[in-house]
């Protein structure tokens, strides 16, 4: 169907969501952005922070006006006044800490990637199902207003039939960053590539076949890779990710009736452009960053939990697993074996 204008996001006002009491696990970079985002744009309360070191928790609590600081993750999940834990540690700890939180009776929002592999994501999903608690991966783009516009354009047939999806994500990092550390599952795929994988699998479904190539970084992690995948209905995706520099960092969705571009930087708040034969339509969302976007996934959790639901349709645990299945196959083909770094896959 030829669209005359782009749809309006159906995203509810973040200020309307019922307030939950959040406990932040791992007071690092993303934890600070998340806390600022909740405090700026929502009525959610960050009531506690847990660190492996009490002074680090206390420092974060003082900087971000958080009333309780504890010196272990076990103490954090035992706090009676915490409703939901935000797991913000590096990826190899997500499995253990998501399960620690769920077993303690806490709902959980787990930073991406939810696990190192599809198998780990399935383990978390099984515990979430058994405990009957809310669990989601913090794939924040899927909760942004702009992604609801993408969803509606596709559902309304504004692209005709989708033929292919192309997405890349490259950045550069300072020396010493955790992305260069094999023991922290470094490399671009699980940190950056997880976004293109989420975009293409959410639009095209699970991969059928994969052809991937990658090259090592001198630090002993994969440095860059590209993968082409086929999906149901004769559709194709092409992704690339690198630690060596910034790429276009956009998503291009090619359909029989039009091309939709999620403009740079694809995973953050920002504009979209739909180009059809006789018209160009734009969705003008101000470009933003983590602080202006991380809260949408938190208020979605608050709404679902208050309604007695355990998952969000915007990014289900099944969707997380599907994206990680593609990641697993790419890692297998490029020879990126996390077990060599002493990690469990
Ligand atoms: N959504 C996004 O835009 C976004 C952006 C960046 C990162 N992330 C995700 O968030 C997670 C954390 O990334 P980050 O950049 O915030 O990392 P970071 O700055 O290094 O912080 C991670 C925190 O986790 C704790 N931690 C637990 N085990 C650790 C270990 N073995 N090594 C180092 N720290 C450990 C540390 O706190 P204590 O030791 O004090 O407990 C540390 O402060 C990653 O999984 C990443 O993929 C998401």
UniProtKB/TrEMBL annotation:
Keywords: Oxidoreductase. The keyword Oxidoreductase applies. InterPro entries: Gfo/Idh/MocA-like_OxRdtase_N (IPR000683), Gfo/Idh/MocA_domain (IPR050984), GFO_IDH_MocA-like_dom (IPR055170), NAD(P)-bd_dom_sf (IPR036291). Residues 20-135 form the Gfo/Idh/MocA-like oxidoreductase N-terminal domain. It holds the Pfam family GFO_IDH_MocA_C3. GO terms for molecular function: nucleotide binding; oxidoreductase activity. Residues 150-260 form the GFO/IDH/MocA-like oxidoreductase domain. The keyword Oxidoreductase applies. Belongs to the Gfo/Idh/MocA family. This is Gfo/Idh/MocA family oxidoreductase. It comes from Aeromicrobium ginsengisoli.
